[in-house]
Amino acid sequence: MVAVGSGTINDLCKLAALQRGCPQLVFATAPSMNGYTSLSASITEAGLKRSVRAATPVAAFFDLRVLAAAPVRLIRAGLGDSICRPTAQADWLLSHLLLDRPYREAPFALLAGDEPALLAESRALASGDLAAMRCLVRTLVLSGFGMTLAGGSYPASQGEHLLSHYIEMMRPLGQPAALHGEQTGVCALAMARLQDRILARDAPPTVRPTAVRRDDVLRRFGAERGDACWQELEPKRIDAARAGELTARLAAAWPRSATGSAASPSATPGWPRCSSPPGRRARPTTSAGPTPSSTTRSPTPARSATATRSSTSRSTSHPADPAPRDQLCPGAARAMG
Q1: CA dist 100 to 109, 135, 237, 316, Å?
Q2: Residues 143, 146, 152, 155: is their CA dihedral positive or negative?
Q3: 3-state secondary structure at position 48
Q4: For the chain, what is the mean pLDDT?
Q5: Is residue 236 included in any domain, yes or no?
Q6: Residues 147 and 155: beta-carbon distance below 8 Å
Q7: Domain count along the chain
Q8: Do the beta carbons of residue 200 and residue 262 sit within 8 Å?
Q9: Residue 272 backbone phi and psi in degrees, to 5
Q10: pLDDT tens readout for residues 157-176
């Protein structure tokens, strides 16, 4: 199955290849999203956006000149889909620390070499600059590989994507639709501000039992879409006992500065911060090489293991040393500037 296009075409071909039991490869025509090399496909079912487990394409081809000639909105969408890395990492790390969910640093180490240059030269993307486009394409492709390494979209899709999906679901009739990456970029900035406000608290937030009921969801989203939402929400609801446990866990380790001022990730090891993990950077084989035409082959399990071992990134229950306070969400901060 050969996909020639971008987001929707890529996702549909992934599903078709999976159903037919055949390999898939993709020729990208726009740098609009990071799903080219991931193992998931984003599909809307019953009005609800879902990530469906598919398979990583056997090869992906990226011609930088073709991508630089794509509509500017699609290029901006790719940038927007990239700047959510800090907020997604913070959310995923928090779920690991609070809920004992698995967490890996490898997906973020893959991006450490290209993300700063991409954000520093983001304005050049609109002018067709191939060097800037190379940074964007590498970031999108490596983000997709990171999702494959993690076994899901965890390192690239967290709270900011929930906000974006809500916007899509509740868009008034007749209002033009925004591109996914455009929404994600805006929602990432909102999420970064929210995370920063929470981490700046002297005292941890109090976790409360889930108060939302099925009737509330159906009333808000309608029968069909509301039922799909409830099926996703119900297993995640927490009762009073569980809420108390989580509140106590937060209180036991909430970071505080030495002077008693606003809480800082630098004060207590192991709490969420949005900078890239320290250590040596992984050097995987990727797309967007030094020439305008580039080819990427999806990593086999052996290659994935090699890429993971070649860096200090690892699956861990002991997150890397915290970054200084002024490095909180640096990618989002630079994008805002």
Answers
A1: 21, 34, 17, 11
A2: negative
A3: strand
A4: 78
A5: no
A6: yes
A7: 1
A8: yes
A9: -55, 135
A10: 999 999 998 998 888 888 88
CA atoms of 85 and 111, how far apart (whole Å): 9
pLDDT digits (tens, 9 = 90+) for 294-319: 444 444 333 332 232 223 333 333 33
Indicate whether 218 belongs to any domain.
no
Q: Could you identify the residue written with the tokens 């991508």?
A: 67
Tell me the residue range of the domain where 293 lies.
2-203+254-336
Asked if 278 and 327 count as a contact pair (C-beta separation under 8 A), the reply is no
Which position has the token pair 């969408």? 77
Looking at residue 297, its amino acid is: R
Contact between residue 156 and residue 143 where contact means Cβ atoms under 8 Å apart: yes
Kindly report the CATH number assigned to the domain that includes residue 264. 1.20.1090.10
For every residue of 212-280, DSSP letters joined together read --HHHHHHHH-HHHHHHHHHHHGGG---HHHHHHHHHHHHHH----TTS-S--TTTSTTS---SPP-SP
Distance CA 270, CA 206 (A): 20
Q: Which two tokens stand for residue 292?
A: 């305008």
